[in-house]
Amino acid sequence: MDSDYGIPRELSDLQKLRSTYQPHVPPCLQGTTVRVEFGDATTAADSSGAHTISRIFLHTYGQPLAHFLRATAKVPDAQIITSHPTIRVGLVFCGRQSPGGHNVIWGLHDALKIHNPNSGSDGLFAQKTLEITDDILATYKNQGGYDLLGRTKDQIRTTEQVNAALAACRALKLDGLVIIGGVTSNTDAAHLAEVFAEAKCSTKVVGVPVTSNGDLKNQFVESNVGFDTICKVNSQLISNVCTDAFSAEKYYYFIRLMGRKASHVALECTLQSHPNMVILGEEVAASKLTLFDLTKRICDAVQSRAEQDKYHGVILLPEGLIESIPEVYALLQEIHGLLRQGVSVDNISSQLSPWASALFEFLPPFIRKQLLLFPESDDSAQLSQIETEKLLAHLVEEEMNKRTKEGTYKGKKFNAICHFFGYQARGSLPSKFDCDYAFVLGHICYHILAAGLNGYLATVTNLKHPVNKWRCGAAPITAMMTVKRYGRGPGASFIGKPALHPATVDLTGKAYELLRKNATKFLMEDVYRNPGPLQFDGPGADSKVVTLCVEDQDYMGRIKELKEYLDKVRTIVKPGCSQDVLKAALSAMAAVTEILSVMSSPASNGNTPF
Fold it and tell me: Where in the numbering of this chain does the Phosphofructokinase domain appear (predicted)?
């Protein structure tokens, strides 16, 4: 072993108990024989970008969906996955740690032992490896963190990075490479799979949706490993703060939550703990709300509560909110442009445009300093370092003091306390759901590799139901890609780049509708809810996040239902049927086809350059 990782942990009594928990797997993955059914060829999620994606991913675009079935499944075209004498698999943790990640490794290792007892799994990059064994895994099963293998922030983007990965896989004689991470990591996985196919490298690349932000969501992916745990742990912390606010009756708590650009964590925690207010970045962006608008909205809420003799409250903010505010986002774009040109931090303010300079000087000094931080690799601001909660608390306090002086507010002095829950939950013991979900995804990774598939993401659907109802499969990563077009600088032409992009909160979805339905009650009635600490047994152990349960996300289930209807049509409409039946079928199918063609067009999907 030439790695510093994999050192046995010293476990508490609870950790020891959790390490004995055996995650469940659905019936389709049980036993020594699994069958795979291939669907039709896939296309890009973004129809307007299909040509661009297919041109870049010549070898991995248009691959079919794969569904894994139990050996006894009565599906004529399903193939039995043949076990190989040995399979060598490399695994890499990419990006930020997420609870449950270790169970992906355990699940893959478990599947390898069942189907290929002589196989093994390794780490990667710089060819620094750790062979996974039962003894190594013993103190990492159902545990948080990424410390079994460590995590890498390295991106596989440049020619040098890709060639290094290719050389490492060949030197280690890997049959498969499993990349565990979110949207950026799995975009890298897709590109790596294409390069490996082009180079005729035998290593197959598989992605796993693991991110606490919950933003790797699409028609194939319902949830991400870690999101359930993160939201439950944060919801308890928020609920404790709500109880404190209700008891002291004199503070407003501004709590910023992790989640990067999307507000999934903030929305879910609101539905679990019922704070007085949440401001979602997607709402702000859609309504083009300014800093002044947000300040006024919060101040009006504070004043309305004061009229009921309530001088406390809890307000949640996603960390990506700062980039959703139009004038702040434009300011950040100017700052980042100057930083990339090599302008020193001390000289930035003097080179801003007049309006940007005025906004910059208006902001408090601590925010000005944070906005000057160099952007992340994806061009976004360093969101975890920008204290949006303190900015809004500061602006609200100033406005409330102004209203007091003007006589329009006659209540008690406004007092704020700020928190950032960004790291407290990331290393938590994973929830029962995340333990099971990650373990199942690890098993699926084995079957993807055994089936010889390359450039696929392991998927599970029907997640809101018990494990024995889960549907397991794999989808080409290229089928999840979209092409966003950016204009870089004045007069620049639009540039399209295929990638997995973070899914934002759907403002037309059922989860958001549930929030809006309860928003006034949450604001005025203090209906705080405490789900309690993370539970592994008894009441609450099998609970799942609200946003998963309220949405109808079983995409593959509905595809199956559609196929059943089409099969019925074929059974009814065949040579020998009546003229009336044939006419009715033709009329109905023509209408359906026309509607679907319109709905599938780029203009209908809103996929136009911006």
Answer: 111-446
- Pair 370, 383: CB distance under 8 Å: no
User: Within 20-94, where are the H helices?
Assistant: 50-56
Extract the tokens encoding 507: 């403002």
- In this structure, the chain runs to a length of 610
Centroid of chain to Cα 257: 15
Assign residue 246 a region (left: φ > 0; alpha: ψ between -120 and 50; beta: otherwise): alpha
Closest-CA residue to 131 (of 122, 118, 143, 142): 122
Q: Is 568 exposed, middle or buried (0-12, 13-18, 19+ CB in 10 A)?
A: exposed
CA-to-CA dists, residue 503 to 264, 423, 482, 544, angstroms: 9, 22, 11, 20
| Token pair listed for 357 | 């300079």
> Does the CA dihedral 21-25-30-35 come out positive or negative?
negative
Query: Taking a C-beta distance cutoff of 8 angstroms, is the pair 60, 480 a contact?
Result: no
Nearest to 66 by CA among 458, 577, 537, 578: 458
pTM, rounded to two decimals: 0.88
Quote the radius of gyration of the chain (alpha carbons, Å). 26
319 vs 392: CA distance, rounded Å: 12
Q: What is the DSSP letter of 59?
A: T
DSSP-assigned states of every residue in 437-455: HHHHHHHHHHHHHHTT--S
Amino acid at 412: K
pLDDT score of 338: 93
Alpha carbon dihedral 535, 538, 544, 550, in 10-degree steps, equals -140
pLDDT tens digits along 484-543 = 765 444 433 345 688 999 999 999 999 999 999 999 999 999 999 999 999 999 888 999
Tell me the pLDDT tens digit for each residue of 556-600. 677 778 878 888 888 898 888 888 988 998 999 899 988 888 776
Structure tokens at 479: 């089928």
For CA atoms 65, 66, 69, 75, the dihedral sign is positive
**CA–CA separation, 294 and 322 (whole Å):** 11
> Is 218's pLDDT higher than 70?
yes
Cα 200 from chain centroid (whole Å): 31
CA 420, CA 316: separation in Å to the nearest integer?
Answer: 10
